[in-house]
């Protein structure tokens, strides 16, 4: 057994993640155990802390666990995944820019609706709220 092996509870405590999350990450292949204790508890090598730190930071930047797994697989094969990560982050940034544009258009539409808001005095037949219902050509 490796001298620097950590029980899953220690890893959870040190990383601030629940044991369940660490088990899930192992199931997905994001983390690897170095074995188990005689009682069946998972043991992790020292690098588990760097991996968990990487996973948390990558998630905070919008990367999915599937994307993170691909980067870790490259790393585990001895490659530096930085170029792949940069490409994925550029894609995320472009998607965010598109969302911002869509939100800006939605904001303008909502402001337009609200600026001329007048509630009808009485219900109109077949109309729930005339301001929200599109005008149907006759």
Number of helices: 5
Number of strands: 3
Q: Average pLDDT value?
A: 91
The coarse silhouette is: elongated
Order of helices and strands: EHHEEHHH
Q: Which spans have pLDDT < 50 for at least 5 consecutive residues?
A: none
Please state roughly what percent of the residues sit in beta strands, choosing from under 5%, 5-15%, 15-25%, 25-35%, 35-45% or over 45%. 5-15%
Amount of helix? 55-70%
Largest sheet, order of strands side by side? 1-3-2
* Terminal residue distance: 80 Å
| Strand-pairing-aware structural class | mainly alpha
| Biggest sheet statistics | 3 strands, antiparallel
Radius of gyration: 26 Å
Describe the structure.
The chain has 138 residues and is mainly alpha-helical. Helices cover 56% and strands 8% of the residues. It has helices spanning 8-15, 19-28, 48-60, 65-76, 82-115; strands at 5-7, 33-36, 42-45. The protein has a 3-stranded antiparallel β-sheet with strand order 1-3-2. Strand 2 and strand 3 form a beta hairpin. The protein is elongated.
Question: What is shown here, in short?
Answer:
The protein has 138 residues and is mostly helical. The protein is built from 5 helices and 3 strands; from the N terminus they run E-H-H-E-E-H-H-H. Helices cover 56% and strands 8% of the residues.
